[in-house]
Fold:
Amino acid sequence: MVSVMDRRSIALLAAGVGLLALPSTATADCSDLLPVPAPMMKRRAITAQDLLGVRDIGRGDGALLGNKSPLGLSPDGRQLAFILIRAEASTNSYCIGLAVMDVKPSARPRLLDQGGEFIGGTGDYRGVILPTGFPILLAPSWSPDGRWIAFLRRDKGVTQLWTVRADAGPARAVTHSPVDVEQFAWGPDGRSLIYASRTGQIAERTALAREAVTGFRYDDRYVPMMGDKPMPLATTALSLFRVGPGGGEARPCEEGDRALLGPDPIGYAILPLSARADDGRFVQTEHVTANPASPWALAMSSAAGVKIPCPGEACRGKFAGLWWMSHDGPLLFLRREGWNDRSTALYRWRPGSGPPRRIFVTSDVISGCELAGGDLVCLRQSASVPPRIVRIDPGAGRTDLLYDPNPEYRSIRFGRVERLEWRNDRGLEVAGDLALPPDYDGRERLPMIVTTYRSNGFLRGATGNEYPIHLFAAKGFAVLSLDRPPHVGAINPLNKDWQKLLVENDRDWGERRSMQSSVMTGVQRVIGMGIADPDRIGITGLSDGSSTVGFALINSRRFAAAAISTCCLEPWTVNATIGPAFARKMRSQGFPPATSDDRDYWEPGSMIRNAASIDTPLLMQLADREYLTAIDVFAALREQGKPVDMYVFPDEYHNKWQPLHRLAIYERNVDWFLYWLRGKRDPDPRKAEQYAIWDRLRLKQPFPP
Structure:
């Protein structure tokens, strides 16, 4: 039977056909964006709708550390402002609101603004700007006098700068930019806002319209999988303007104001952390070698500029935040440490008085911290708990809950999650979270699904949020959520730039072999524990994770089913589908050109070359802007009579952003693995065609049941 919540998900998907086909004028019911406290309910199983409807603060993904904090602290340290966002499948949209609350336990947030559209991020990829589908980090900012809060909001396809009085609404747009506002900050006087938008894109669009008359020249502006026109240039600089918090005419800024905004948000530079004390002491992080992926070290100096050594192991590693306590106080810092940097530790250090002292260490992910008085206010999440706002006493290490945006999760019945650690064949540290069904007693072996790439914090849907880990577990699967080891090129100090690092990664498929060993060793570990059934193992992945899946299907016969969200690294992809700039870069990393027909090179890593020997049933659920990189693999597998099924989702990117699509992807991934690993099917008649297709695919297996 299908549960009530499962029926609701199916009904939403059925209703969503109309939403995707026609412009929707429906308004989402966002009345529960601020949930009302409710008594503890009888524990129940998790559903796809639960995972889809998580209320996020910031990005939610525990693997994305080192970003700007999504918590806006008032100048007096007594209030927090933050953006809440929740997906709403009924309208294929998002509920978004600006909330403010006091920094104390049991405080209730209040909404100062509600509305707007999802804001997806963009990046500089080989000289052009590409949308990614990942949400940008929304961080509201208080005016220095505490009277105003500024934030970004998107309406009718354009992102503008908005403000609201901290004591009351309504909020209003203070910019009317023809292109997206991408950055903002309060000016030094505290009475104006500096903002940045790429207004040069207006002239760029005009030039493209003229070029269209005589045809676009095919050059580095093209990324064919993304569309049939040149992409926007990353060299188009941000233009800076100044506006008052109440609106009015926008005026150009001085070039010196650019430092207030930080680096261009389309860049991918990993910047060092730094903090300056009120007495002039300064600390920043520096790489320990010239390798750009090497660990960091704390570099300390006095107010007079005299270097102060930091003794002890805690002074090196991966840091997630630095803060000075006031009035000649000590330095606080968060450090990722332990096996594969999977734990979070808080340290306290008074320079010149010995090594830093660890206050506590936890397997939880702590991020986005701000110093409020003598305490840290942070987001904290664990494998079975979505992010919550907490207050941490840096003296005793005590943590108080300030706000839980997802109280419904207290009524969900989760299975045990066990943290596993192992090394791959290169000696690199690998880790994984093993999620088990709620009532699992260890008496029988389970079918197991491997999710790939990163595993940190709340186990929602793995990297890309398409493989619902806890939902898989609730359906009777063990799930090994893999947290990848360092890149093979990251540990060599001679790799003094990213190009050298990538060349080493790709030499003789070194990175793929490292990941293959990581996966296979982890799978064997769970088999050896008596938990996983060796004949019923599935594997999934997006991006780097999908490359891991492809390599595993070529070089192993372990997997009985697979699913990927992107595809694939093949000669056509490397040399054509992602454009000439990508082809040139890949050749510089050692990949052969299109005309080489280098069969020996591609033999270990090409699914096309190995299509005849791949028997694992493969599900592809791809974005319309990426499916062209998969059609040659799909054709090769079909040509060889292999069980492969592919779906293409419209108006999507590398990270799929539409709630209805995510719900459909969750559902189909669950159905796929239930079908191939457990021999089960959903009796809902609306899925009859899906199972008829899969039944025909099953007949293509070399030994069908």
User: Anything to note?
Assistant: The first helix runs from residue 4 to 21. The chain has 13 helices and 35 strands.
